[in-house]
Design brief:
113 residues; mainly alpha
Length: 113
């Protein structure tokens, strides 16, 4: 059986959505564990975990209005670029800074999520 060429975009969309959700869930678990490991503070770890949820709530509340105003494509590309920057910030922080304060550590990954 040949694959219908019209079904390819939906397969790509489902794959991209799956990988995006997988990455978000891995980050939701890994970042608080890293925060706990480096700060040894359960309070700061809880704040880092809450930061992930606050970012999702803000994106939900503000995202719909932004899509209506600027278009879905523009918001999607902008959100992906900001997400890339926020994920890149954590390893760069480890490379370029010897000592991070707990507040810097948990704020950076969630700034643009």
């Amino acid at each position: 059986m040949k694959s219908d060429i019209r079904s390819m975009p939906i397969i790509g969309l489902i794959t991209a959505e799956f990988l995006s959700l997988l990455g978000n869930q891995v980050a939701a678990v890994a970042i608080p564990i890293l925060v706990l490991q480096f700060t040894n503070s359960p309070l700061v770890t809880g704040i880092a975990s809450a930061g992930n949820i606050v970012a999702i709530i803000l994106a939900t509340v503000l995202g719909g209005r932004a899509i209506d105003r600027f278009g879905a494509w523009n918001i999607s590309v902008t959100a992906d670029l900001l997400s890339f920057c926020s994920v890149l910030a954590l390893p760069l922080a480890f490379i370029y800074f010897d000592q991070l304060s707990p507040y810097q550590f948990h704020i950076w990954p969630y700034c643009y999520s």
